[in-house]
Amino acid sequence: MICKAHEPAVQHYYLLHYLLKYSAGWFLSFPSFEQLAKPALRAAILRHSLGDRPEAHALRSDEGFVMTTIKLHNTRTRGKEVLDPINPDDVRLYLCGPTVYDRAHLGNARPVVVFDVLYRLLREVYGPDHVSYARNFTDVDDKINATAVARKEAGAPGTLEELVQERTEETISWYLADMAELGALEPDHMPRATAYIPQMIAMIEELIAKGHAYPDGAGHVLFSVKSYKNYGALSGRSVDDMIAGARVEVADNKRDPMDFVLWKPSTDELPGWDSPWGRGRPGWHIECSAMSHELFGDSFDIHGGGNDLMFPHHENEIAQSCCAHPEGDFAKIWLHNEMLQVEGKKMSKSLGNFFTVRDLLEQGYPGEVIRFVFLQTHYRKPMDWTDKKAKEAEATLRKWRALTAGIEPAPSAAAAVIAALSDDLNTAGGVAELHKLATTGDAASLLASAQLMGLLTEELGAWAKDEEVDLSIYEKALFDARTVAMESKDFAEVDRLKSAYLEAGVEVRMSKAGVELVPGAGFDPAKLEAALKP
Ligand SMILES: [Zn+2]
């Protein structure tokens, strides 16, 4: 693709075109860039000719695409790489989606938000019509079956299969609603595993035919890990280490303890499909391999997920896909986000710090605040959710929303924000740039840049709107109560007001000069109003 650009004559032509068109603002009747080359090639040429231009705004091409080089940390090669899409007209990314048996917890939301920023950045750089993003739903799984069995035993009407379907439909709708509240755009493809069973069966047959998988004669098909010499390359572990670390289940039907299930038998009551190995259902790993192949072919650009999926899920996806389609690369770049903690501890039900996204929304944390807290930590670092961070995030967003109210966004995000995001999705750096724009009062640029990160958008703004409450009467009430109390030495009313304000989600700052009230997370105007009517 780049070879043409390396010819000096071609480079000169582009340079001349660029100089005439952008530097002096002249419009001459040169052929348009569209007639000359693809967006990525043009971007490469412009980067060469521009170096680091100090403009406030990112440079846009004729078609409005932003010129930048995106670098991403590739788990596979353990280094940052320039994203060089297989086809710049169709940049393809795949993210492992949820198993739909329950509400998404806060940790499940992190890769969704991280990948949403990447998706937005790619759309900005390659154009919204030139990016394909797929995130699957695993809607066949033992955990889903278990919820249906439990409901059946509790007397729910319907067959097990109907109860499974009810559960998956309900969970998918919850998931989409919750992720939308975090400002995540819906992917272009949201394949459900159960809609791709024929493709999975075909892929398993292919693996058996090529000697990479074997049926056990009792309804299972297993992948032979020893048949794939690069197994473990992604996570950088040897097969022996993996066996030692992963408490691999040793079973009679496995030729090797590391072999994993591609297909397993199903009972008559549970969801199942006819296959050459009897009625059954797919293993989890084969789903992503089959769905990504159906949607994106043998090779695509980026595959992502939490780093808890690296082994065994992603190793198994690679083994299956590369053995079934050895002519392709499967995914070129692998992105993995680090895990999420709550107040410095691993989130767990036993510690009582386990939150679903819905829990937090119901506690009054706006989705935009959750997103903003997430983006303050780089995706490759552990992210610590704390109440303090959420309160600060809420105050910042409130300030920025006030600053940008009624303002038109700039034509493009600030160059510094795009540069930060293009450097391995440095969202923390991007947020630092947003603070700078707010400090200098460049509201139009702040708005455009924040919106590129999915913040300060119209859709996420409802929480900040209905809370434009005049706080001065509440400040005066507390100030007056304190003046009276200084005389009477009876501070009961002062204490009552203070705790009522705190209860309404308002921080109380008292000094000699006066009282300042600052709405924080979970601010409830109705409760505040009630505070004055004991
Ligand atoms: Zn997957």
Automatic annotation (TrEMBL):
A motif ('KMSKS' region) lies at residues 346-350. One of its GO terms (molecular function) is cysteine-tRNA ligase activity. A motif ('HIGH' region) lies at residues 98-108. Keywords: Aminoacyl-tRNA synthetase, ATP-binding, Cytoplasm, Ligase, Metal-binding, Nucleotide-binding, Protein biosynthesis, Zinc. GO terms for cellular component: cytosol. It is an enzyme of class 6 (ligase). It catalyses: tRNA(Cys) + L-cysteine + ATP = L-cysteinyl-tRNA(Cys) + AMP + diphosphate. It is found in: Cytoplasm. Zn(2+) binds at C96, C288, H313, E317. Residues 416-464 form the Cysteinyl-tRNA synthetase class Ia DALR domain. It comes from the Bacteria. Its cofactor is Zn(2+). It holds the Pfam family tRNA-synt_1e. One of its GO terms (biological process) is cysteinyl-tRNA aminoacylation. Binds 1 zinc ion per subunit. Monomer. Belongs to the class-I aminoacyl-tRNA synthetase family. This is Cysteine--tRNA ligase. It comes from Phaeobacter italicus.
